[in-house]
TrEMBL record:
Residues 1-123 form the YhcG PDDEXK nuclease domain. Gene3D superfamilies: 3.40.1350.10. It comes from the Bacteria. It comes from Ruminiclostridium cellobioparum subsp. termitidis CT1112. Pfam families: YhcG_C. GO terms for molecular function: nucleic acid binding. This is YhcG PDDEXK nuclease domain-containing protein.
Length: 136
């Protein structure tokens, strides 16, 4: 996954794998952390082998909050959290995240790699959505 994301473009920089953060003596491990120089934000990725739960979304919210409060630098955009899971319920995502959410995304992963053209279309679509949101 780390190599795949780095191949998406020169604007991703690898920050950490299994990044440990500690609160009150309890340790948590973030699967992957990148920095995107186009979006000027941290991209936090959590990989789930099973079905997505509301606890997984809450955990990602904690990671995003941590990076927002402790790791952002002046001029950075808010961090983005991505949860890749084997299965998800759209209802769980809908009712766990606030309606105005634009920081945490959950997606099922596929057991095959998309074609280069499919990936390019998807990235262009996501970039357009982000640009439109920033204009608002």
């Amino acid at each position: 996954m780390q190599k795949f994301l780095l191949e998406l473009g020169r604007r991703f920089s690898f920050v950490a794998r299994q990044k440990r953060i500690t609160f009150d003596g309890e340790h948590y491990f973030i699967d992957l952390v990148f920095y995107n120089y186009i979006l000027k934000c941290f991209v936090i990725i959590d990989l789930k082998v099973g079905k997505l739960t509301h606890q997984d979304i809450g955990q990602m919210q904690m990671y995003v909050n941590y990076y927002t409060r402790e790791m952002m630098n002046e001029g950075d955009s808010l961090p983005i959290g991505i949860i890749l899971c084997a299965d998800k319920s759209d209802s769980v995502v809908k009712y766990t995240l606030p309606e105005d959410n634009n920081q945490i995304f959950a997606s099922k992963y596929k057991l095959y790699m998309p074609t280069e053209e499919e990936l390019k279309r998807e990235l262009e679509k996501e970039q357009e959505l982000l640009e439109n949101e920033q204009k608002l």
